[in-house]
Amino acid sequence: MVGHAAIQAIFAHMFVQVDAPRFIVLDSMGQGTQAFLAWEFRFRMKRLVAGEQCIRGATHVRFDAQGRVVWHRDYWDAAEELYEKLPLLGGFMRLLKRASRH
User: For a disulfide at 18, which of 43, 67, 87, 97, Cβ 3.0-4.6 Å?
Assistant: First the structure.
């Protein structure tokens, strides 16, 4: 799936999974036909974890001559930003992280 339909599907799925989702752009840099955004994604999970959650990441986008996004890639650490916050899996991920530091 590509184009508007793909974007709509991603956001529809997000609203099923989480409450009060919002992206906060912290910084941006652009040069020519590309840009980078540093962001926080804040939300409340509907199940499993109580309270507001925050995932920090960055996005790289490229634009065509009309200014439309033709390429998009997000970068974020799923282990630290999401998995460590989940019950059961979180404890295991933190244990692995501590073990890798020794």
Answer: 43
Which residue type sits at 46? K
63 contacts 52 by C-beta, under 8 angstroms: no
Residues listed for the chain: 102
Per-residue pLDDT of the chain (102 residues; tens, 9 = 90+): 778 888 899 889 888 889 999 999 999 999 999 999 999 999 998 876 778 888 899 999 999 999 999 999 999 887 666 666 666 666 655 666 677 776
| Element counts in the chain: helices (H) and strands (E) | 3, 4
Burial of 22 (0-12, 13-18, 19+ CB in 10 A): exposed
